[in-house]
C-alpha cells in the first residue's frame, strides 16, 4: 500500500542525490516535491540582480518580502518562477551557486522561505529536500533521511550533470563542493546537520533508482507506523 499524506524530509550536502531521489519518490507516491535549495537560489539571483549584498540585511529583508517564488512541475525538472519569470536554468549557474550560502545564512531570508515552505507542506503528502528540513522546517516529518555520499562521488555527479558542459574540472568541483559544505555546516542558524531521528543513507555506491527504492521502503514503514493503512 502506498503511503498517503506523510511528510518526507531529505537533507544532506550538495550532490548527495537529494533532488533526484526526492523527485523519484514524489513521483512514485503522487506527492508534491519541494526543492528548497531552488528557493534559496532564486533569492540569491534576485539579490545579485538588484545589487544587494548578503551583508545588507535590511535591504535584503525588504527584497525577500516582495519576491514571488513558485515551484511548478516541468517536463524533467521542476520549473522555478521568480516574479513570474522562468529562472530554472539561471539559478544553477556557477555565479549564483557560489553565493547562495552567504544569502542563505541571513536570518530574514531563512525566516521568509521557511514560512513559505511550511505553507506548501501544510496538507502533507510532500517530499521536501534541503539542509534544515528535518531539523527545522518540518521537525514532525514522519520520515527524515540524511543523504550523503563521498565528496569525490558528489563532485563526479556534478561534473556529469553540468560541470563538463561548463568547462570545469573534477578537482574544481571537489573544491567548490567542499567549500559550500563547510559554509552550510558552520552557519549560525539552521546549519546543515543530521537530525537526531534521521536515517542516514549513503548513496556513494547506489544508483538514483536504488536510493529511491530505499527511501520508498522507509516511507512505507513510516506510513504504517504513523497509523496509515
Ligand atoms: O543542488 P545542490 O545540492 O547543489 O544545492 P541546493 O539544494 O540547490 O542548495 C543550494 C544552497 O542553498 C545550499 O548550498 C545552501 O546554502 C542553501 N540551502 C539552505 O540553506 N537551506 C535549504 N533548506 C536548502 C538550501
How would you characterize the overall build of this protein?
- Helix content is 50%, strand content 16%.
- It has 9 helices and 8 strands.
- The strands form 2 sheets. Strands 2-6-1-7-8 form a 5-stranded parallel sheet. It has a 3-stranded antiparallel sheet with strand order 3-4-5, covered by helices on one side.
- Strand 4 and strand 5 form a beta hairpin.
- Helix 1 packs across helix 9, helix 2 packs across helix 4 and helix 4 packs parallel to helix 8.
- The longest helix is centred in the C-terminal third of the chain and has 18 residues.
- Bound molecules: cytidine-5'-diphosphate.
- Cytidine-5'-diphosphate binds next to helix 2, helix 4 and helix 8.
Summarize the topology.
Blueprint: E1 7-11, H1 18-29, E2 32-35, H2 36-50, H3 57-65, E3 69-73, E4 78-82, E5 85-86, H4 94-104, H5 107-120, E6 126-130, H6 133-137, E7 143-148, H7 151-163, H8 170-186, E8 199-202, H9 208-225
Parallel strand pairs: 1-6, 1-7, 2-6, 7-8
Antiparallel strand pairs: 3-4, 4-5
Helix pairs in contact: 1-9, 2-4, 2-5, 4-8, 7-8
Bound molecules: cytidine-5'-diphosphate.
The site of cytidine-5'-diphosphate has 16 residues, from helix 2, helix 4 and helix 8.
Amino acid at each position: 500500500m502506498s503511503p498517503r499524506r506523510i511528510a518526507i524530509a531529505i537533507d544532506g550536502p550538495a550532490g548527495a542525490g537529494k533532488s533526484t531521489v526526492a523527485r523519484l519518490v514524489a513521483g512514485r507516491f503522487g506527492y508534491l516535491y519541494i526543492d528548497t535549495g531552488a528557493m534559496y537560489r532564486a533569492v540569491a539571483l534576485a539579490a545579485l540582480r538588484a545589487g544587494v549584498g548578503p551583508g545588507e540585511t535590511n535591504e535584503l529583508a525588504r527584497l525577500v518580502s516582495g519576491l514571488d517564488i513558485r515551484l511548478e512541475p516541468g517536463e524533467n525538472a521542476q520549473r522555478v518562477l521568480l516574479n513570474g519569470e522562468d529562472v530554472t536554468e539561471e539559478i544553477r549557474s556557477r555565479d549564483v551557486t557560489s553565493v547562495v550560502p552567504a544569502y542563505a545564512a541571513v536570518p530574514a531570508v531563512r525566516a521568509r522561505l521557511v514560512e513559505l515552505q511550511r505553507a506548501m507542506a501544510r496538507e502533507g503528502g510532500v517530499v521536501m529536500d534541503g539542509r534544515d528540513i528535518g531539523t527545522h522546517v518540518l521537525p514532525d516529518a514522519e520520515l527524515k533521511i540524511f543523504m550523503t555520499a563521498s565528496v569525490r562521488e558528489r563532485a563526479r555527479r556534478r561534473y556529469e550533470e553540468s560541470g563538463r558542459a561548463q568547462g570545469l574540472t573534477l578537482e574544481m568541483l571537489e573544491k567548490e563542493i567542499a567549500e559550500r559544505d563547510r559554509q552550510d555546516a558552520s552557519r549560525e542558524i539552521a546549519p546543515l546537520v543530521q537530525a537526531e531521528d534521521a536515517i542516514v543513507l549513503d548513496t556513494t555506491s547506489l544508483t538514483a533508482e536504488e536510493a529511491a527504492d530505499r527511501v520508498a521502503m522507509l516511507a512505507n514503514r513510516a506510513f504504517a507506523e504513523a497509523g496509515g493503512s
